[in-house]
């Protein structure tokens, strides 16, 4: 006999009924008679969703916290595994979660395209995410990669990294330049980059701070940011300075979770112009790499005034992004991209004929219980987008 709790199947969540189910996601088939939803949808999609669990911080290790994540295999993760059965702590955030009196969700199993543990370095993540996008980009399709998660979950670490563990922006650009050099007999390349932020629904150039910039649509180039400074680069080494310079200009405020919490979405865009020498064909493609603002619930952080508005705008734009992706997945006739600057900017980089990878960053700690749960739910919703690539790539 199983002791059944609440069974959740919608959005790919599955309740694990007892300890032995944790061993394999396939076991659930025989128990419920259905296949895990996320497995059915995983075939041939043009969006891949990866989860990365960061190492516990010193504070989390030092305090009496519990681990709320269990990685079952390289694509399956269990949120709040029952077997852990340890006390639940909300250190320092009782105010924020004052309405939660007990552990609200237990033993939820999620299946993603890949799950990385705290042992993974940025290069491991790169190999399974943006490296694959480069081929698509070379074929003339737009691509996007975004990191999602609460403040302190490891988004910026994944994107930018540090000296001994460079982030996926640098690794992707290095690979792009490598492939460009290999193809130099067949193609001429021009590579230009821009770096901007969307803060409170305004777009600003991070490499040339100034007034808010407008978005326009252009038949040839897709969505463009009018007046943004474009940097032509031919070596990945030059990127370090550019990114460092841009990040200094990013809108940040201290929060409970992080001394330097990014309150804006930072978008690094690479425009690739290729001329195939034998045919004179021109191919244009764009890669957008987005470090999203912290996804924690702005309205629940207890802030007021400008900080509250900021949180509301972040939530609105992340919701709009989720809705846009979901609209594409369900082939809605009208997909609501005008709801936020973020979706307007990414309109030509998500969905049909584009390839996208989302990296959901989470903390393993019970301190971030609600944020981790929300991130996993958002990520599984994104995972349901369906394929419609017109060409094989
Ligand atoms: P976010 O951008 O999501 O707010 P950060 O990337 O700034 O979070 O990460 C918060 C802290 O955790 C930083 O000090 C960062 O260096 C550290 N960190 C995050 N992910 C990792 C990781 N995978 N390995 C080592 N340290 C990490
Ligand atoms: Mg950050």
UniProtKB/TrEMBL annotation:
<dbReference type="GO" id="GO:0005874">
    <property type="term" value="C:microtubule"/>
</dbReference>
<comment type="similarity">
    <text>Belongs to the TRAFAC class myosin-kinesin ATPase superfamily. Kinesin family. KIN-8 subfamily.</text>
</comment>
<dbReference type="GO" id="GO:0007018">
    <property type="term" value="P:microtubule-based movement"/>
</dbReference>
<protein>
    <recommendedName>
        <fullName>Kinesin-like protein</fullName>
    </recommendedName>
</protein>
<keyword id="KW-0505">Motor protein</keyword>
<keyword id="KW-0206">Cytoskeleton</keyword>
<dbReference type="GO" id="GO:0003777">
    <property type="term" value="F:microtubule motor activity"/>
</dbReference>
<keyword id="KW-0493">Microtubule</keyword>
<dbReference type="GO" id="GO:0008017">
    <property type="term" value="F:microtubule binding"/>
</dbReference>
<keyword id="KW-0963">Cytoplasm</keyword>
<keyword id="KW-0175">Coiled coil</keyword>
<feature type="binding site">
    <location>
        <begin position="149"/>
        <end position="156"/>
    </location>
    <ligand>
        <name>ATP</name>
    </ligand>
</feature>
<keyword id="KW-0067">ATP-binding</keyword>
<dbReference type="GO" id="GO:0005524">
    <property type="term" value="F:ATP binding"/>
</dbReference>
<keyword id="KW-0547">Nucleotide-binding</keyword>
<feature type="domain" description="Kinesin motor">
    <location>
        <begin position="46"/>
        <end position="385"/>
    </location>
</feature>
């Amino acid at each position: 006999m199983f002791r059944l709790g609440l069974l959740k199947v919608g959005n790919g969540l599955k309740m694990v009924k007892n300890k032995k189910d944790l061993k394999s996601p396939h076991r659930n088939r025989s128990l419920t008679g259905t296949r895990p939803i996320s497995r059915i949808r995983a075939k041939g999609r043009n969006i891949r969703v990866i989860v990365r669990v960061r190492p516990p911080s010193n504070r989390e290790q030092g305090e009496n916290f519990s681990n709320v994540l269990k990685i079952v295999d390289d694509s399956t993760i269990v949120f709040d595994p029952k077997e852990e059965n340890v006390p639940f702590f909300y250190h320092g955030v009782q105010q924020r979660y004052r309405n939660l009196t007990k552990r609200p969700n237990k033993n939820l199993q999620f299946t993603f395209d890949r799950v990385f543990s705290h042992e993974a370095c940025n290069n491991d993540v790169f190999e399974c995410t943006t490296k694959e996008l480069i081929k698509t980009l070379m074929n003339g399709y737009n691509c996007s990669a975004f990191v999602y998660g609460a403040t302190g979950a490891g988004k910026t670490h994944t994107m930018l990294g540090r000296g001994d563990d460079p982030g996926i922006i640098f690794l992707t650009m290095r690979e792009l330049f490598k492939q460009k050099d290999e193809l130099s007999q067949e193609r001429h390349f021009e590579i230009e980059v821009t770096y901007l932020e969307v803060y409170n629904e305004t777009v600003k150039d991070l490499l040339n701070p100034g007034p808010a910039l407008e978005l326009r649509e252009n038949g040839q180039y897709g969505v463009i940011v009018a007046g943004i400074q474009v940097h032509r680069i031919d070596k990945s080494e030059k990127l370090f300075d550019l990114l460092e310079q841009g990040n200094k200009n990013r809108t940040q405020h201290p929060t409970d979770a992080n001394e330097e919490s990014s309150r804006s979405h930072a978008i690094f865009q690479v425009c690739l112009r290729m001329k195939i020498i034998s045919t004179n064909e021109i191919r244009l493609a764009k890669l957008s790499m987005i470090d999203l603002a912290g996804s924690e619930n702005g309205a629940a952080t207890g802030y007021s005034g400008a900080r509250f508005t900021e949180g509301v705008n972040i939530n609105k734009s992340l919701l709009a992004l989720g809705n846009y992706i979901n609209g594409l997945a369900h082939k809605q006739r009208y997909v609501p991209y005008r709801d936020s600057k973020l979706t307007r900017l990414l309109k030509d980089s998500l969905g049909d004929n584009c390839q996208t990878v989302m990296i959901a960053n989470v903390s393993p700690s019970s301190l971030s219980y609600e944020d981790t749960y929300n991130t996993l739910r958002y990520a599984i919703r994104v995972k349901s987008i369906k394929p419609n690539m017109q060409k094989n790539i």
